[in-house]
Request: fold
Amino acid sequence: MFHFDNTYIKLHEDFYQKVWPSSAVAPELITFNKELARELGANFESMDEQELVNVFSGKEILPNSVPIAQAYAGHQFGHFVPSLGDGRAILLGETVTPKGLRFDIQLKGSGRTPFSRRGDGCSALGPVIREYIVSEAMHALKIPTTRALAAVTSGDQVFRENSVPGGILTRVASSHIRVGTFEYFSCRDNLSAVKQLADYSINRHYPELKTSDNCYLDFFKAVAKRKLSLVAKWMSVGFIHGVMNTDNTSINGETIDFGPCAFMDQFNYEKVFSSIDRNGRYAYQNQASMALWNLSSLANCLVPLMDKTPDEMSTVFEEEFERLSEYFTSLWVQEMGKKLGLFSVTEEDKGLIHNWLHYLEKEGLDFTNSFQDLITLLSHSESQTLFKRTTELEHFVSSWEQRLAQQSQDREASKNLMQQSNPVFIPRNHQIEKAIAEGMEGNYEHFHRLNLVLANPFTNQDEHQDLKEAPKESEVVHQTFCGT
Reply:
């Protein structure tokens, strides 16, 4: 079991509301992540399935747990909402691993909270299945993310467009502090709370900054670099978050909130999946600029804590954002360069990368599988590739091979780097939809299969080749939905 150690509740009472989980009627276990439980140092071995269900549905509250819903605000699609908060999530408490790492344990879909407004505080089963699959796949892809510890059905129906089964996810995060948490207090001119939150965040996530002479500016820089590193990794695997609002922007550099997220099949710079992103604000190619936009909101919250005037800080941040934009570009080029077998990328490699991506977009090729075909091409295998031989492709291949020849590493080393940097399997939208549709009928076989395969995304698993195939025209998912 968890040995809860709660530090967030030591902050001012304005930071949260105490609340009890209430949505579980007759819950049943879908899955329990034993490996993650072991990493957390939590011993559930002595519990039977019903006891696990009770814990991970919120019917039983473990010792020392103090369930709370956290307060936060947020810019949603550019529009500021001063009061959001955990409307369907309840933080059970914090646990410290054997390695000394602190994690939040949170239930999603566990019932109404003081921040639910007109919502029911519940989650439909579909989003629970989606978040479990995608967050665990993200972890296997070596991308910082929240994790999924358990998924259960609630035993009740929830009403969205129609009546659907309810579900509850147990989410693990290094914290749930968001840019929107800072905005909640900043918009209320509660400077003492902003300072308390910044100090708490530094102590919990960036303790090396505690002795800094400019700790709040350095805190901003550290948050920004983690966030931009995360987005570069997202884009390297064709991931589109879908709802990059400030309330979905973690200050610890983790992927959080997987509502209408998706992985691209056919490559398209302007690709959007989210049904609520009608103007393409959070399209694939916009994610870095939107991350910087969200970070500017954090900067505005922190300015009053700094020892310079707002005008002076405006100049400081203007210069900092120029550096951050360049920083992201360098990160993106490094991530994409590895996918092309480049060990040390240069400014010139940016053109090579864009040439490749423009070719994929023009030909409507699958993002993930095309990199696998490049590995095949590098091996001089006679295997059939997806590539349509065009002048544009021939030009790219010639430039690429010349660039590889300039490296001190041989082609085999480049091939190994590409295999380590390019997943064979991603959580494809049509496969997730299949797992959801079958799960709604009480069949979790495909759900379990996906989790098994996606746990080793860089391994070519012969018996699961169908899961790496791009969708047929009839299987293409054009829009994704929050659905919670």
